[in-house]
Design brief:
The protein is an alpha+beta fold and 807 residues long. Helix content is 48%, strand content 14%. The structure holds adenosine-5'-diphosphate and magnesium ion (MG). It comes from Phascolarctos cinereus (Koala).
Length: 807
């Protein structure tokens, strides 16, 4: 799109009666100007050797009308501005050479109007020719005098902040003069009024402020913004036309100025030479830095010089012989400028507001399209708006139910919902990770694996055995985590599975000992490269409440560790544990409490039966003893009477015979009752175990419930409450209940894949209870098999031990 262009340079010769025909000649194509100076050392006008110069330019305007000058110099630049190209036209030359005449012309004579009013006229004419676009025109008029900025339109009413001291500001949108009034002009006439106002102010200022107008630069800027009338077109173009009437280029030495005048002259030359430097730098592709900031003129024109804009320079010269050296100087400037190339480009922008509106429109259309698709697919009530908190909470609850198995599938509704489902998976995962870590840190001291000194010290203290897998077991029920030997580390690498599998794998270990592999798991969670060691007894105490605590008693108080107190609690004091326990038994703990009570009833029943049997045995024994006594009396009496034998058979009387029969029967009874008692004792033992397990479970569950209900942070609480199916550190029980008796493998699988990572005590106890029940059940079954299967309590026969995990 961008093509390199040269800076266009023209020479305009001011008409004079004394034109130096001998010295100034024009090429036939009107594109060159030759200067010839007669060597006249006597007059000393020119001292250098050279006497002939030829300057190639884009056009020589000699005796050219204002009309012709405009068409040649400005017409194209202005036309291109309407297409989005910035344009700058500058008049350069010594004072009186006709710069102002060229740029502004005479304000009294329409025919002699200059480039400025003609440019405004062309702009408005072109706007009329483009009804497809809404084009706005604004103008500003800036004067730079002795490096000070003046707003030549400041006398007009302006909505902007006119009190702001003027300064040149660079912004992402481009360069602008802060404090300079920019006036909207809807009509050609208004634009002219502004121009005349500016011209008047320029003249007045030159008198009142002692400003020599020949020492100042004047920049009249026309700002154009063109929006397509078609609303779908979000692009719009902006452009600026800078019409610059530069200060006189005459050199200080020539003017013979002194004092203030001299100072001013120096400034002028400086800023003109800076202008030249900047334009040259812009034209040099290798130059990275363009010295725009050296003076106000170049700084203010930063985005309008060379570079990406159309640039035209008109060198105004005298045709008089007396001004030849200044003429030469101006021509040199012009020819230097001619060598410079620029790359004009369109200033295309995007109308953000229009873009938003168009996107909104499209969004509505697409939603309508979706609605049609939904109704065709019989999908009612599907919304595609961003989700609110309630909807997100519902998804969170769904995910939890899905994780615990109570929900088989999460229905796919739309993309937003799918994304939210994944998001909630992440939320739940991170909550659990945090919980796990927090709970580990509450219970254990973490030691860096690489910290051999500490490990050695710990080994010496006996907390970790030689193999590194003994733990601080205190009362046979507590447990801790030890150093993981490499052999004990799980081979699985899958991040998630490893976390779940490894931690739950611990539960298959023996009572009171968590697998050393767990230490590794903690690693994989977040306590990277650390080891865990049981550091306090409190964990043991809490996780394994003492046996004499009766679940049904009113004091199931679990010791509150100080660390637990430091745990973030919810506002308000948690209720005392005894009363909370009663509540728990009616609430979440109702089922396990029911089973517990049922087991206890059976136990008591068996105990009662056992004592009744024992009593019966005792009375049978007494009767046996007395019968034996009576028999002995009979025997003694018979012996005293002399024995009576019949063919080798001893004859006894009827009374003695009955006693013998009775004794036999009593002994039989005795044996039967005795067997019953033994069976009952086995049953009692088994039931006692069940009762203990249930009590354990009840207390553990209560602990969790109590924590969840009163001690866990609200953030964690909310999602837990959502459906409550996933519980901190609990194996989803619905999974357990589905286990068949011989499903040990499946159980293991579920543990590894479903169990949330939870080194807290609960899964450990879950697993232990499960294992114990299984073992005890098999044992009891075996012991009953060869005896009296009928004596197994019906409740035991009907249910598998895993059923006792029911809450
Ligand atoms: P500058 O702005 O360069 O100092 P001016 O534009 O003020 O010079 O010109 C000085 C005088 O010469 C003015 O009175 C102006 O009308 C007159 N003049 C300059 N150029 C022309 C021209 N091309 N035709 C007629 N008059 C001119
Ligand atoms: Mg002038």
């Amino acid at each position: 799109m961008t093509t390199r262009k040269k800076v266009h340079t023209y020479v305009r010769v001011k008409p004079t009666d004394e034109f130096a025909y001998e010295m100034i000649t024009f090429g036939e194509d009107n594109k060159s100007i030759d200067i010839h100076i007669k060597k006249d050392s006597r007059r000393g006008i020119i001292n250098n050797q050279q006497t002939d110069w030829s300057f190639k330019l884009d056009g020589v305007l000699h005796d050219a009308s204002q009309d012709c000058v405009y068409d040649t110099v400005a017409k194209e630049v202005v036309a291109q501005a309407l297409d989005g190209y910035n344009g700058t036209i500058m008049c350069y030359g010594q004072t009186g050479a006709g710069k102002t005449y060229t740029m502004t012309g005479t304000t009294e004579n329409y025919k002699h109007r200059g480039i400025l009013p003609r440019a405004l006229q062309q702009v408005f004419r072109m706007i009329e020719e483009r009804p497809t676009h809404s084009i706005t025109v604004r103008v500003s008029y800036l004067e730079i005098c002795n490096e000070a900025l003046f707003d030549l339109l400041s006398t007009l009413p302006y909505v902007g902040n006119s009190d702001t001291p003027m300064s040149i500001v660079e912004s992402p949108q481009g360069i602008f003069v802060k404090g300079l009034s920019v006036h909207m002009t809807g009509r050609e006439e208004d634009a002219f009024s502004l121009l005349f106002e500016g011209e008047t102010n320029r003249i007045i200022a030159s008198h009142t402020m002692n400003k020599n107008s020949s020492r100042s630069h004047c920049i009249f800027t026309i700002y154009i913004e063109a929006h397509s009338r078609s609303l779908s077109d979000e692009k719009y173009i902006t452009s600026k036309i800078n019409l610059v009437d530069l200060a006189g280029s005459e050199r200080v030495g020539k003017t013979g100025s002194e004092g203030q005048i001299l100072k001013e002259a120096t400034y002028i030359n400086k800023s003109l030479s800076f202008l030249e430097q900047a334009i040259i730098a812009l034209g040099d592709r290798r130059r990275e830095h363009v010295p725009f900031r050296q003076c106000k003129l170049t700084h203010a024109l930063k985005d309008s010089l060379g570079g990406n804009c159309n640039m035209v320079i008109v060198a105004n010269i005298y045709g008089d012989a007396t001004q030849l050296d200044e003429t030469l100087s101006s021509l040199r400037f012009a020819s230097r400028m001619k060598l410079i190339t620029t790359e004009p480009s369109i200033n295309e922008k995007y109308d953000a507001e229009r873009m938003v509106k168009n996107l909104e429109k499209e969004l509505i259309l697409l939603k309508q399209e979706l609605a049609i698709h939904d109704s065709l697919a019989n999908r009612a009530m599907v919304t595609y708006d961003p989700m609110d908190e309630i909807q997100i909470a519902e998804i969170n609850s769904q995910v939890r139910r899905y994780l615990d198995g109570s929900l088989d599938e999460i229905d796919i509704i739309n993309l937003r919902q799918i994304q939210e489902v994944f998001n909630q998976f992440r939320v739940i995962l991170s909550q659990q990770e945090e919980e796990v870590e927090a709970s580990l840190r509450r219970k254990y001291t973490l030691i860096n694996k690489n910290d051999f000194a500490t490990i050695t010290a710990v080994n010496k203290a006996g907390l970790v055995d030689v193999e590194g897998n003994t733990v601080g077991e205190t009362d046979g029920q507590g447990f801790g985590l030890g150093v993981a030997p490499f052999s004990a580390k799980p081979g699985k690498k899958g991040k998630f599975k490893k976390t779940f599998r490894d931690i739950t794998g611990a539960s298959t270990k023996k009572e009171g000992l968590l697998s050393p592999a767990s230490a590794k798991d903690v690693d994989s969670l977040s306590t990277s490269r650390s080891q865990l060691l049981s550091s306090s007894k409190e964990a043991d105490v809490k996780d394994a409440p003492s046996h004499d605590r009766e679940a049904s008693s009113s004091e199931p108080v679990v010791s509150d560790s100080p660390k637990e107190d430091s745990h973030t609690t919810r506002p308000g004091t948690p209720p005392p544990k005894p009363s909370a326990f009663e509540e728990f038994k009616n609430e979440r703990g109702s089922e396990i409490n029911r089973i517990f009570k049922q087991n206890k009833t059976i136990l008591n029943d068996r105990r009662k039966k056992a004592s009744e049997t024992a009593q019966r045995i005792n009375s049978i024994k007494k009767e046996i003893d007395s019968t034996k006594e009576a028999l002995d009396v009979q025997k003694t009496f018979r012996e005293e009477q002399g024995e009576y034998e019949n063919k080798g058979l001893m004859i006894i009387d009827e009374e003695e015979f009955l006693l013998i029969l009775k004794l036999k029967e009593l002994k039989k009874q005795y044996r039967g009752e005795y067997q019953d008692l033994r069976d009952l004792k086995a049953e009692i033992q088994y039931c006692q175990h069940l009762v203990d397990q249930c009590r354990q479970r009840l207390l553990t569950e209560f602990d969790i419930w109590y924590k969840e209900s009163f001690l866990i942070h609200e953030d964690v609480q909310a999602p837990l409450k959502a459906k409550g199916s996933i519980r901190l550190g609990l194996l989803p029980l619905s999974k357990l209940t589905s286990l068949a008796e011989d499903d040990e493998d499946k159980f293991g699988q579920i543990q590894t894949s479903v169990l949330p990572d939870c080194p807290d005590s609960v899964p450990f106890y879950n697993a232990r209870m499960k294992l114990d029940q299984k073992q005890n059940y098999s044992k009891t079954m075996a012991s009953f098999q060869n005896k009296k299967p009928g004596s197994i309590p019906s409740v035991l026969k009907e249910k598998s031990p895993s059923d006792y995990n029911l809450r």
